[in-house]
Amino acid sequence: MDEVKYPVLTEKSIRLLERNQYTFNVDSQLNKTKMKIWIEHFFDVKVIAMNSYRLPEKGGKRGSMIGHPIRCKRMIITLKPSDSIPLFSEQ
């Protein structure tokens, strides 16, 4: 799926891994329903909850042009306690 860009590894996302929550940067057009179906199908896990938010805009200037880059969306996915995503496993 091209809409899921990559997993996020920040201090906050690493802290959330302890609570079985995984963070992904996704396309700004992707909604929670599509993301839930994709995660459950691709990783064979059960999603309990999902939170999403847009990253703040950062203004920029390139020459005489002033504008904002395209923002992306970040999703935090909570899984069942018995499930995990192998991409993030600590084995």
Characterise this structure.
The protein has 91 residues and is an alpha+beta fold. The protein has one domain: Alpha-Beta Plaits (2-Layer Sandwich), CATH 3.30.70. It contains 2 helices and 6 strands. A 4-stranded antiparallel sheet has the order 1-2-6-3, sandwiched between helices. A two-stranded antiparallel sheet has the order 4-5. The longest helix is centred in the middle third of the chain and has 12 residues. The chain is elongated, with a radius of gyration of 15 Å. 10% of the residues are buried. One of its GO terms (molecular function) is rRNA binding. Belongs to the universal ribosomal protein uL23 family. Part of the 50S ribosomal subunit. Binds to 23S rRNA. InterPro entries: Nucleotide-bd_a/b_plait_sf, Ribosomal_uL23-like, Ribosomal_uL23/eL15/eS24_sf, Ribosomal_uL23_CS.
Distance between the termini: 26 Å
Approximate helicity band = 10-25%
Largest pleated sheet: 4 strands, antiparallel
Q: What is the CATH superfamily label?
A: RRM (RNA recognition motif) domain
Strand content: 25-35%
Number of helices: 2
Classify the fold: give the CATH topology: Alpha-Beta Plaits
Morphology call: elongated
Return residue spans where pLDDT drops below 50 for at least 5 consecutive residues. Answer: none
Give the SSE string: EHEHEEEE
* Count of the separate structural domains: 1
Mean of all residue-level pLDDT scores: 86
Order of strands, widest sheet? 1-2-6-3
Radius of gyration: 15 Å
What would CATH call the class? Alpha Beta
Judged by helices, strands and strand pairing, the structural class is alpha+beta
The CATH architecture term is 2-Layer Sandwich
Strands, count: 6
